[in-house]
Design a protein that fits this description.
The protein has helices spanning about 1-25, 25-30, 30-40, 65-75, 105, 240-255, 270-280, 295-300, 320-325, 355-365, and strands at about 45-55, 80-95, 100, 110-115, 120-130, 135-140, 150, 165-170, 175-190, 195-200, 215, 220-225, 235-240, 260, 265-270, 285-290, 305-310, 315, 335-340, 345-350, 350-355, 370-375, 375-385. With about 400 residues, it is α+β, with helices and mostly antiparallel strands. The chain folds into 4 domains: about 40-75 and about 80-140, Thrombin, subunit H (Beta Barrel); about 150-255, Beta Barrel (Thrombin, subunit H), CATH 2.40.10; about 260-355, Pdz3 Domain; about 355-388, no CATH class. The protein has a 6-stranded antiparallel β-barrel with strand order 1-2-3-6-5-4. It has a 6-stranded antiparallel barrel with strand order 8-9-10-13-12-11. Strands 15, 16, 17, 18, 19 and 20 form a 6-stranded antiparallel β-sheet that branches. The longest helix is centred in the first third of the chain and has 22 residues, at about 1-25. It is globular, with a radius of gyration of 28 Å. The chain starts with a helix and ends in a 5-residue tail after the last strand. The mean pLDDT is about 80.
Length: about 400
């Protein structure tokens, strides 16, 4: 009996030892997620910004509003200036040129930008260019050397259900890793900042401070830039596809800004009469009043047509149409849902540059204004008689 018990103990010990030995082997625990994080984390940065905010201070309540007080002491201007700090994330996209990609709202209004790497190095960040319509900004790390960088991926072939990894600085907890899956592609969200289209939706936790950090696939490639701009998100996160971000980065680096684009169409809101005539059901969309670009005209768009949708986004009115176009870059194709006398149809149109010269030309035609550009300001040089 003792021999049987001894054999049983020995067998149990051998089996459990083998199990724990296998479980503790690094190769078993070195999952694709762990491998990706180890490869990418050195290129993820924490961004600390500060900006000066002015606030009126009235320590005496309504005393300064009293007419008798103002008679003797005059108007008291008590304005206090204080420094407001915020945190965000970013990712090094070019280690040779010292370029960091982040969200525009992370560095908006910042008077100082300080960037910290995983290895403890810190650098001053210089703004190369920023565009709030795309919520993207590029920073240059001053005096930096031997920087790591991420590998660029392709967001066009992402799969629903694919595992993704978000790395960032939520609530000041640097280099926090969360995982999830791609829940949807091409999402449109409405925020106080405007309409944002073509977002990646994921269930990976993206909190304040995560903004600007990378969204990675299991191949260790950058496929999106996380953004916490949508305040109502609960249990879901959004990221800007890297293919869109790359186009924006190219223009920010070369021009310092993103070239404004348009489709060569002018229009106005759809009223009930037009909606009824075209059988739209409701007064939504933008009715085309003028066509300026030959490319759009050759696509079959004529005055009187109604732009019902751009891409996958339904157009509410003229203002909404213009906000949607802000999500496109020069040379990008847009799929237009058009309603006209011949019924509904879908056409493809390419974004054209909306230059300062074109804007001045349209101002002259629409309002009768002759305008000159002087630095960053416009000066009215003349007004056409009889103009509005």
């Amino acid at each position: 009996m003792r021999i049987s018990r001894l054999l049983a103990v020995l067998v149990f010990w051998a089996l459990t030892s083998a199990h724990f030995s296998a479980a503790s082997t690094p190769g078993v625990r070195m999952t694709p997620v762990v491998r990706t994080v180890q490869d990418v984390a050195p290129a993820v940065v924490n961004i600390h910004t500060a900006r000066i905010v002015e606030q009126e201070v009235n320590p005496f309540g309504t005393l300064f509003d009293d007419q008798l007080f103002r008679h003797f002491f005059g108007d008291q201007d008590l304005t206090r200036r204080f420094e407001q700090r915020s945190l965000g994330s970013g990712v090094i996209i070019d280690g040779r040129k010292n370029l960091v990609l982040t969200n525009a709202h992370v560095i908006e209004g910042a008077s100082t930008i300080r960037v910290r790497l995983l290895d403890g190095r810190q650098y001053d960040g210089e703004l190369v260019g920023s565009d709030p319509d795309f919520d993207l900004a590029v920073l240059h790390l001053k005096d930096a050397r031997d920087l790591p960088q991420v590998a660029m991926g392709d967001s066009s072939d992402m799969m629903i259900g694919e595992t993704v990894i978000a790395i960032g600085n939520p609530f000041g907890f640097g280099n926090t890793v969360t995982t999830g899956v791609v829940s949807a592609m091409g999402r449109t969200i409405e925020t106080k900042q405007g309409t944002f289209t073509d977002f990646i939706q994921t269930d990976a936790a993206i909190n304040p401070g995560n903004s600007g950090g990378p969204l990675m696939n299991l191949a260790g490639e950058l496929v999106g830039i996380n953004t916490a701009i949508y305040a109502e998100a609960q249990g879901i996160g959004f990221a800007i596809p890297i293919n869109k971000a790359r186009r924006v980065v190219d223009e920010l680096v070369s021009l310092g800004r993103v070239q404004a684009v348009w489709l060569g169409l002018e229009g106005q809101d759809v009223d009930e009469r037009i909606a009824g005539y075209l059988g739209l059901g409701e007064a939504r969309g933008m009715v085309v009043t003028q066509v300026h670009e030959p490319a759009v005209e050759s696509a079959g768009i004529r005055p009187g047509d109604v732009i019902v949708a751009v891409g996958r986004v339904d157009v509410e009115d003229r203002g909404h149409y213009l906000r949607i176009l802000r999500n496109y870059t020069l040379g990008q194709d847009a799929l237009l849902d058009v309603a006209g006398q011949g019924g509904r149809r879908t056409v493809t149109a390419r974004m054209q540059p909306f230059t300062d010269e074109k804007a001045l030309e349209m101002a002259a035609k629409r309002w009768g204004l002759s305008v000159q550009v002087r630095g960053r300001a416009l000066a009215v040089a003349g007004v056409r008689p009889g103009s509005p």
